[in-house]
Amino acid sequence: MFFTKASKASAYVSKPYRGVLDTGIIERIRQAIIQQPIPDTGDRAIDLAPWPEKITKDGRVVFRRTHRPEYERLKNEVIKPDMVVFCTGYRQEFPFLTKQNSSGGKPYALANEADVRGIWHHDDPSVGYIGFLRPNLGAIPPLAEMQAQLWVLYTLAPEKIPKPLHPKDELHFRLWHDKESRIHYGIDHESYVYQLALDMGSAMGALEAVGKAFSGHENAWRIPLVWAFGANINSKLRMRGPWKWSGAEKIVKGEMWETLTRRRWFFSKYPAVPNCENWLTSSSDLGCLLAVGPADVNLRPHQLRLLGLRDDLLARVRPRARLWRLRLLWQQDG
């Protein structure tokens, strides 16, 4: 699932369908609890349409026949656009990298062949692809910063990588897709950033986060709460590790704390629950729900099913699995 970032356009897109489509009882309950106010757009709307098959000689667009609501709404209309803007996407191609290189005649790996955290190919880390993965939510620049940290560390000081970068650790952040999907490089933002932090030894454990509260620094008690219920913003992952930054703690206690307490009503009074609505998309929140810690746990299959994990995910959880791994698998299942 990719979340729309065009929030200002959403009201215009949804206008023709509001009150017309049956959204179901679950969606109506959700809207009654956490629905964002929808601005009045008057008689203005943005029409969605299927992919056009052709444009006739008289300028009429013929859309591909589908059974989606946008097709059913437009199928009997005669649409003659004044302007057509081609926004057909792009392909990641680098012809200068596919030529024979100087190290032995083998071409460099391309972005879609980068099999180590989606950044470089295991046979040749000299070429790193920074910012080529698409997060389901969040922005690419913060991801690029974390990717650059790992790539530079692996390239210049591989001995500082605390453990091998196993492909099996990538399962939880890869977004599942059909073979026919256009995008095969989607990732879960929170899980991916957290994994990169684990790779570099930059992620605090529960005990370390709680210990920060007793450091004696001003407002240090906020740190474990932000660690538990805040998003995996880069500053939170620069309080330790090879890229430790002295200003990270100030941002965690300041700006990141404000993101938890500026919510209205209940959420502004109880900072420990402002991200409850993100439990299905935030690895940290769900991790705290499971009392995440550095210790291993024994969970039997029937106990994992009670947590909502499907059988196909159960097969991927080892009998003794770290809680953070269980947390991330459950998050992707959601």
What would your notes on this structure say?
With 334 residues, the chain is mostly helical. It folds into two domains: 7-74, no CATH class; 134-333, no CATH class. The protein contains 14 helices and six strands. A hairpin with a 5-residue loop joins β1 and β2 (61-63). α5 packs parallel to α6, α7 (206-212) packs antiparallel against α8 (222-229) and α8 crosses α9 (248-261). The longest helix is centred in the middle third of the chain and has 17 residues, at 140-156. It is flat and about 70 Å long.
Mean pLDDT: 77
Q: Nearest-angstrom radius of gyration?
A: 24 Å
Instruction: Supply the number of helical segments.
Output: 14
Using the alpha-carbon principal axes, give the shape: flat
Uncertain ranges = 265-334
From the helix content, strand content and strand pairing, which structural class follows? mainly alpha
How is the largest sheet built, in terms of strand order? 1-2
Count of structural domains: 2
Helix content: 25-40%
Order of helices and strands: HHEEHHEHEHHHHHHEHHEH
Q: Number of DSSP strands?
A: 6
* Residue share in β-strands: 5-15%
Euclidean distance between termini CA atoms: 11 Å
Largest sheet, if any?
2 strands, antiparallel
Walk me through the topology.
Elements: H1 7-14, H2 25-34, E1 52-55, E2 61-63, H3 69-74, H4 95-98, E3 134-135, H5 140-156, E4 186-187, H6 189-200, H7 206-212, H8 222-229, H9 248-261, H10 266-269, H11 283-289, E5 296-298, H12 301-306, H13 311-314, E6 320-322, H14 323-333
